[in-house]
Batch of 4 targets.
Target 1
Amino acid sequence: QVYLVESGENLVQPGRSLRLSCAASVVSGINLVSHGVQWVRHVPGKGLEWVGLVWSLDNRGHCAESLRGRCTIFKDYNERTVVLELNNVRDEDTAIYYCARDMWAGDFRYFDVWGRGTLVTVST
Amino acid sequence: EVVLTQSPGTLSLSPGETGSLSCRASQYVNGWLLNWYQLKPGQAPRLLIYGASVRATGIPDRFRGSGSGSDFTLTISRLEPEDSAVYSCQFYGTSSFAFGPGTKVEIK
């Protein structure tokens, strides 16, 4: 089953902005905006790279140090989605972007439900 | 900042064999925050192990996580063709969430 679905532009020109959304599928029964949500990206052949997250209890977004200043993450309560915006995109932002639910269970912390990802290509 | 290294880079095994995947942290980490994921092309990444040794829901007991401190292992027993994937460890930090570079498991 697919519980989270990423969507947004697949082709972005260098220097422009990228906006991706993460939504929970109807069958999942997940109210995404009541959870923390993480964004992770993957360049095939390389390791996963953490992009950022928005916390469960509020709408505070927090981005990886390498993306700070270009990255914004927030919850859209009307659409029940979590949005990733990346400004001034570069070639190295080309990757598969995943969203995942952030889970706290007692002392454990992990990303328990993921989307299939969406490929973003930065190119003219 | 915690940096994770994984070895080997690629593991090529036959069905039925057992594979051991290593994840080493650059410093001591709390094992409760060490997780393993399985990545396959075109699919959602799957949580296998959390807290270093707890199998996630629906994960068969062929997958076993162990370790503590800075040294962790994912062991896959009785390998099946469907286990062909990249396996990534992760440390859930307070403000960053490091992933290892991954180990690719190939089934001959």
Note: Chain A is about 0% helix and 55% strand.
Target 2
Amino acid sequence: GQNIDQPTEMTATEGAIVQINCTYQTSGFNGLFWYQQHAGEAPTFLSYNVLDGLEEKGRFSSFLSRSKGYSYLLLKELQMKDSASYLCAVRGAGTALIFGKGTTLSVSS
Amino acid sequence: NAGVTQTPKFRILKIGQSMTLQCTQDMNHNYMYWYRQDPGMGLKLIYYSVGAGITDKGEVPNGYNVSRSTTEDFPLRLELAAPSQTSVYFCAAAYYTGELFFGEGSRLTVL
């Protein structure tokens, strides 16, 4: 089976840096995705990692360690609009993409 | 480009009724997925398809059926609706193993 764990909630202030962790156990591995979901909306794609290391995209970066079954999403220069749920998803040996329960991030001024 | 379109956006069903959630995509993506999302929870995979004529069960398939007769369409059928099927349903499409593009969601209430 597959298991994906992320913290349920996190809080941070505007301008700060926050790191959202994701650990996973899967049968096989074909990539890890991060999605952002604002309340009442559909998820939108943020990043994709299939090899170990850091992928940077503007204020957002994502890191993967396949040997440790671990990833994190790093958000820099936080803005109020970053308040949302952040979903970690893993594609195992097959084509199904399985999501964790998500981390709700609240950014305050 | 519409992307992934889901209909209806909202629906109220009575226990025991049946209905079909429609999903169509104009991106010519071969992989399509149905997820459900309950409050405070992540997305649970119901069914997915890697191409026309091919479907597979996901994590929570009971009470649902799908078909994939064309690349564009991937309808989700609910038979004998139950209160436990009250949820937000998302359809998504992907180009092979790439990122998923989601529809806006269908909010279903079973009373």
Note: The mean pLDDT of chain A is 95.
Target 3
Amino acid sequence: GAVVSQHPSRVICKSGTSVKIECRSLDFQATTMFWYRQFPKQSLMLMATSNEGSKATYEQGVEKDKFLINHASLTLSTLTVTSAHPEDSSFYICSATTGSPSQPQHFGDGTRLSIL
Amino acid sequence: GENVEQHPSTLSVQEGDSAVIKCTYSDSASNYFPWYKQELGKGPQLIIDIRSNVGEKKDQRIAVTLNKTAKHFSLHITETQPEDSAVYFCAAGFGGSYIPTFGRGTSLIVHP
């Protein structure tokens, strides 16, 4: 089946650091990638949708200057949390899809971000 | 936009029993309904999906039913096993620029 690799799986860093998370589709071309944030025991909260070669579309309330998304190729999207603070600590998950109608998303295994 | 309600939030069963998780959606244009299983510390994994032109789909111990008129769909797991313990999410969306809406999740606990 389709495989999405997310790296790193865990990050612990000091407040003020910028952190980059990578999301790769390993065996298919991901026209569209999604970035989610998940709080403990809660559902997935969509942060942004990115299409290859164009600017990401951010959900209401998500700061685009805080969460920089780049989708430069059909197999790679990155999320950079800039000047991270403790309130940015969370579980970040990416997913990818071919973009064809009614095709499922395939999720990465998430990145646990802890800001001290 | 779409609104997906999922119940129950927690479901506890004995090994071998059946488990049923129910979701309702609001947008009649939605035509694709996937179910995901999320184990602790991992991303969600697609376990089964159904499209609006089908009323039921089965894959071994897992089945999904869809009632378009009532706008609800359900996940059925038979002969549950401890390894079925996880959080299950339903989602609803429509073709084209598919951005699904997720339910709030159901924590399934299967007791040995």
Note: The two ends of chain A are 37 Å apart (CA to CA).
Target 4
Amino acid sequence: DQQVKQNSPSLSVQEGRISILNCDYTNSMFDYFLWYKKYPAEGPTFLISISSIKDKNEDGRFTVFLNKSAKHLSLHIVPSQPGDSAVYFCAASALGNTPLVFGKGTRLSVIA
Amino acid sequence: DAEITQSPRHKITETGRQVTLACHQTWNHNNMFWYRQDLGHGLRLIHYSYGVQDTNKGEVSDGYSVSRSNTEDLPLTLESAASSQTSVYFCASSYLPGQGSYEQYFGPGTRLTVT
């Protein structure tokens, strides 16, 4: 049973517009959420995170929103740039030293 | 600079052979993880370790083993390679909660092909 779901395998956005990547989770014990970005032939790199005590975290062009009641988080990229084209993974962790659980990823293509 | 490295970066092996993938980190992280990435499956956890002499099974541990004899290394062994183990393998490490942030730092990956 998938605990972290990214239901859109791919997303295409024009340069300069907003990219919105979505993630749903089922485990109510998750209390920390992360987004990773992955380019081909490279390892995933950490992008931004949010703890369950917040509903928004912002870092430059990247903002993550958390809706705990809906068990939903989203990553907003504004404005989108061609260099943002990559696979984005959503991940979640429960309280304590537990491994991250990853979604299957969403491939973002930003078209110039 | 601290880093996490994996070797080899590419490996082709035959069915039935034993294969060991190396992972070395200089972050002094207690936690280390092995994942495989396959199309349509994302990142799936194979094994993980919270410290020296500690190992735990992940979601897809069958056919794999790990050992942790020091802080820096967590080698992944495929006991008898199978074609279903053709994949890209990523090693990652992180701090214990309270020591630092939750994020895991990933290595560059090893592409393994089993023929």
Note: The two ends of chain B are 37 Å apart (CA to CA).
